[in-house]
Design brief:
It contains 6 helices and 5 strands. It is α/β, with parallel strands linked by helices. It has a single domain, classed as Alpha/beta knot (3-Layer(aba) Sandwich), CATH 3.40.1280.10. The longest helix is centred in the last third of the chain and has 19 residues. The protein is globular and about 50 Å long. Keywords: Cytoplasm, Methyltransferase, rRNA processing, S-adenosyl-L-methionine, Transferase.
Length: about 150
Amino acid sequence: MKIGVYSIEKSSSQWVDGIIKEYIKHSSRYATVEDVVVFNKDIAKAQTMDAQAAKEAYTRAFEPHMKGFCVALDVQGETLGSASFAQLIASASDVRFFIGGAFGFSTDFLAKHQKVISLSRLTYAHKIAKTVLFEQIYRGLCINNHHPYHK
């Protein structure tokens, strides 16, 4: 099984990167999990223009990576419990999660995904949302493999 998390980020944080690396390491006995950060000059320029330009830049950056079972994170997406999330990641051998930039995703881009989920109705800082996603990936893998971490 392969799980990829694709995100729009212009800078990293040492403490967040450390936590994410730990979850990737723990997950490695069940799946190959990768963290792919996407940011380029097109995105940087578009984000200074307006929301529509930014969303179009995110779409262009992510489309080449849309393979397998694609899941977008969006505040209006479906909220799942941990057991349902575990079923979601068990549904395919290649699962890819997409976390947008500050302006979110266009409706057209969201329509290209097999699933659109929300981690919460709360708004999180980008790095917090990404950390929560990696924790849930590990939790879901543990649930699917009958590991006691979930308890």
